[in-house]
Amino acid sequence: MTENPTGAPAPEPTGDPAAETRFTDKRRIDPETGAVRASASAGTPAEPDGDAPAPAGTPAAEAEVEDPLAGLDFEPSGADAELVQAQSVAAERLEDLQRLQAEYVNYRKRVDRDRSVARDQAVAGVLEALVPVLDDVDLARQHGELAGTPFAAVAEKLEATLTRFGWERFGEVGEPFDPQVHEALMHQHSDEVTEPTVSMVMQAGHRVAGRVVRAARVAVTSPDA
Hints:
Shape: elongated
Order of helices and strands: HHHHEEEEEE
Mean pLDDT: 76
Oligomer: single chain
Largest sheet: 3 strands, antiparallel
């Protein structure tokens, strides 16, 4: 058993080095050899106790200093907790509202587009059924059979009504030949033209809202090779 300078017996070791009590022998005379210890005679301070804290500013002291906020798990309570929860719910509701608004805008665009397409298809279907009537009206007008007759007013009202729905008649002599809107029934060559040109319109074309219902049936004149 290690003697304590105060004369009190030292506690029994527990087996755990960290839990054992450490003592510093400050006696000037070594009890075993009887010699004066050099540290005591030279006036140097004794070795510091291992349990004493290291002086401030040393690496050991700096290593032990920790951020007082490190590892702090803050949980709001009371009114703060209710506010945080309310803000979270409001953010979720705002996100849901924005998503629903975007879906509604896309739905309206799709409905408007489908409505417009359905309308154009309906008008085109009616116009396609009236193409023979419009051809007869146009042919009678070219031969002067409408002028001065009651049917002329009826024909004008019919064409005016169809025009409000996007109908138009096309095909004129002298315009460049376009296979997308013209159907060539006759073809000839001439040195009077520099490109394929419509030389005669046999039946005018009809279209509604830019969609060709029937191509104009024409005769085409091409330049000599």
